[in-house]
Amino acid sequence: MFVGGNLADWLNSHQFAKREEAKITGIHKQNAKREEVSIIENQALITADNMLESRNQIVFSGVLPDISSLKQTMMDRTGIVRTKELLTLQDDWLAQFSLDQWLEARLDSLEPSELNRLFMYITASLITKAALERTESRGGHYRRDFPHEDNANWMKKQIIHQRKNVKDGKHEFNQTALAT
């Protein structure tokens, strides 16, 4: 029936061959899967690159405020004592420098000093807009047109920061919670 051997030997050799074939097939499947994942990863990278390239393609050569004027107007109009009129005046003054266009612009052609001015301008715009939104006096900032704290409207949410040092005293982290 089985020339040169018995049934057990034939079954063992046949099963061995099947196991080897399964290993090889599995390896081929793994390689194919790796290639598929690699292709997908490459497509994702290409898509991400294309998105980054299409974003911030605007070359905007607008004018930025000089640092001394920016500092002086911020201190005069959005400093410790504030009014809606002064904040609005500062907001209008800042608007002439086209914040929205700067936020969409490519920045790689700017010198470090220009980047510094741009970031100061963006920060000044954020501070001014936030100060216009706050219609109360609280902490170190006083609104002449809103001389009192307005706990009913402004104490709805609190952001609580807790700073902790690690045992070595060199590292620390901030823990933040939002209480409503």
Q: Features of this protein?
A:
180 residues, mainly alpha, two-stranded parallel sheet, 4 strands
Describe this structure in words.
The chain has 180 residues and is mainly alpha-helical. Helix content is 58%, strand content 11%. It has helices spanning 7-54, 67-78, 84-95, 99-104, 112-133, 151-154, and strands at 81-82, 142-143, 158-165, 172-179. The strands form 2 sheets. A two-stranded parallel ribbon has the order 1-2. A hairpin with a 6-residue loop joins strand 3 and strand 4 (172-179). Helix 3 packs antiparallel against helix 5. The longest helix has 48 residues, at 7-54. It is elongated and about 100 Å long. The protein starts with 6 loop residues before the first helix and ends with a strand.
Structure, briefly:
This protein is mainly alpha-helical. It contains six helices and four strands.
Q: Count of helices?
A: 6
**Biggest β-sheet description:** 2 strands, parallel
Q: Please state the average pLDDT score.
A: 77
- What best-fitting shape do the alpha-carbon axes yield? elongated
Enumerate the spans where pLDDT stays under 50 for 5 or more consecutive residues.
Answer: none
Distance between the termini: 85 Å
User: How would you spell out the order of helices and strands?
Assistant: HHEHHHEHEE
Radius of gyration: 33 Å
Strand order of the largest sheet: 1-2
Structural class: mainly alpha
Topology:
Layout: H1 7-54, H2 67-78, E1 81-82, H3 84-95, H4 99-104, H5 112-133, E2 142-143, H6 151-154, E3 158-165, E4 172-179
Parallel strand pairs: 1-2
Antiparallel strand pairs: 3-4
Helix pairs in contact: 2-3, 2-5, 3-5
